[in-house]
Amino acid sequence: MSIVTMLQPPPGLRVLVTGGGGGIGLTIARAFTEVGAKVHVCDASERVLEAMRADRNNESISATLADVADESAVARVFEDVQSRLGGLDVLINNAGIAGPTGGIDEIDAAQWEQTVAINLNAQFYFARRAVPLLRESPHGGSIIAMSSVAGRLGYAYRAPYSATKWAVIGMTKSLAIELGPAGIRVNAIQPGIVRGPRMEGVIAARAQQLGLSYAEMEAKYLEKISLRRMTTQEEIAATALFLCAPGGSGISGQAISVCGNVEVL
């Protein structure tokens, strides 16, 4: 096999992307369809899924409306995966929320619990149902968990988010050891400051917290990145593709930062 061939996933992979109706998740889903994969996504927003379906670029992507923090909804997602994909080769555990911005004494307990439910519990719900299918994959099976650079750095005023993203790394490394003998690889991607509406909301909330303008806050974020620029969604998707390609077949148990080297948050 040539080196170039090793950089592309095999055609026909069956892929599930959680939180795949928009943002990074949809960019990853589209990337997999471009290399011949069969892709199913789930998302908690009917509005987001309607917008996805309205775009002709997404015609080959099937979808389920589901709250990833609801275990019964997760079960319905896998019913659709079985009926539409006929099995599973790759799980992209992407769904997540930014969580609240504020000091630890200002954060409501319900906000903490919601962040844990969506960012961490959902990863467990999907992994436990995906593994029996991944064991049957002729490609060995792959789980890619979406963490964050906040899963390797402390993040003041964003404790719920950071705590869940650190936990995702712990689960990733544990599952890599547990599932490795079955040929299932488990890795995490740690995006940094990714350009898009979600990051704009995070910057705006942090600016308000610190009494700064949006432009001042954005400049402060960029100063903390060695490359002095935001990461793109396409760079995250390209990393996911490589992890599912023959060239990435020896990679497991790793937390891979795609962030331009964020130095501090």
UniProtKB/TrEMBL annotation:
E.C. no: 1.1.1.385
Q: Which UniProt keywords apply?
A: Oxidoreductase
Domain of life, per UniProt, equals: Bacteria
Extract the coiled-coil ranges from the record.
none
Any one Pfam family match given in the protein's UniProt record, by short name = adh_short_C2
An example molecular function term from Gene Ontology annotations: oxidoreductase activity, acting on the CH-OH group of donors, NAD or NADP as acceptor
Q: Which InterPro entries match?
A: NAD(P)-bd_dom_sf, Sc_DH/Rdtase_CS, SDR_fam
Q: Which PANTHER family match?
A: SHORT-CHAIN DEHYDROGENASES/REDUCTASES FAMILY MEMBER
Q: What is this protein called?
A: Dihydroanticapsin 7-dehydrogenase
The scientific name of the source species is Paraburkholderia fynbosensis
